[in-house]
Amino acid sequence: MHSLAASFFCLAVATAAPSTGWLPEGILPAPKDGALVCPGQYLTPEQGAAVLDQARRRFPDRASWEAYARHARARIQEGAGLSPWPRRTPLNAVMRKLRRYDGYTVENVAFESVPGYFVTGALYRPLDARPPYPVVLNTHGHGKPITKPDDYDTHARFGPGMQTRSATLARMGAIVFAIDMFAYGDSIQLVGQGAHKQPVALTLQLWNAMRAVDLLLSLEGADPQRVAVTGESGGATQALLLTALDPRVTVSVPVVMVSSHFFGGCPCESGRPIHRSADHFVSNAMIAALAAPRPQLVVSDGKDWTSRVPDVELPFLQHVYGYYDAGANVANVHLRDEGHDYGPSKRTAAYRFLSERLGLNLSAIQRPDGTLDEGRVTVERAAALHVFDAEFPIPADALHDAARIEQALRAQPGEGEGTIAP
After folding, report:
1. What is the mean pLDDT of residues 381-390?
2. Integer distance in angstroms from the first to the last C-alpha of the chain?
3. Which of 15, 38, 114, 205 is an S-S bond match for 263, by CB 3.0 to 4.6 Å?
4. H-type helices in 323-420, by residue range?
5. What DSSP element (H or E) covers 232?
6. What is the CATH number of the domain that holds 147?
7. What is the DSSP letter of 260?
8. 0.90 cut: is pTM over it?
9. Tell me, what's the pLDDT at 26?
């Protein structure tokens, strides 16, 4: 985390960039060595708000904003280490241990986002709905560190909240894929927990999310016109980046992460130069604005870096959405007395928004008084959710080292693909 001097705004950086480029006044000077990364609380809240004010003035209409949005997307893609896009190789998906519950099924899934590298997760499908089905990618944040084997049961994808969210959305009629972060959940078996702190985690998580959308849309009955992503904290960072760069995402719900001054405290969020380069700068609030005009619900709270969303970040988002006459497509649920999680009230907000925007069946989880009921979900033990186990061991030729996985990714160059942009 950077410590910024009081004279921060005297450190103006001249914009010597192409017409589509932009660097706001007052950002930290570029380091002499190393990548232009923006970890943690890179700005103060006041500085973050000032950058958004500058952006309003610099991009006063839809044409100027769209020109910069295209430029920013290209720089984010480059900064993430994904330019050009790698080739989409066969997923070779494995689905195991089908279980039937009240209104939904669960299967454990692994697929190869890169040849030899397995992404793990759980697939939830509706039993009481008819196709075509909306699809939802559920991402998760970091949660507490794992200190003993039993912690798996309450951690990340295995946690009750993630399972409840995924199963409830399936009961409402969506196909839902709950994906493991790189080196979290079942992925720990493959690469070890320590690998998550490497900057390559950002690269792989973004690519894994895109390939997870490929997986979802390959399923029978999946509706390519209704694709959503939602996650909290580091999972919201994944949701923001995926939505910004993949136009197939039609609805997004980033939870407790949209901020103009905090850029993510883990290398998987800010360990690569996605937020700034020699001729671009974006905060997470600006990345959220790249979703416009697609529907987006920003969920925030009063006890973390999203505490100012109603007064700072939301007005900026409304301003950008206004360029498309789509102000009604961006909303905020702010829970002033709550903290940093994806708890019941935040999930309720997401269910209502996704029900409206995806055409889901809210009545499937609604009590007679209109409140929502998650109580018909079966929360499983972590062991039941593992893809790889004694019956189905990890393939002998699987890649386990982060450097080798990144090398394999770069060995699959795309065929001249540029930035995916709406």
Report:
1. 92
2. 33
3. 38
4. 344-358, 382-385, 402-410
5. strand 222-232
6. 3.40.50.1820
7. S
8. yes
9. 79
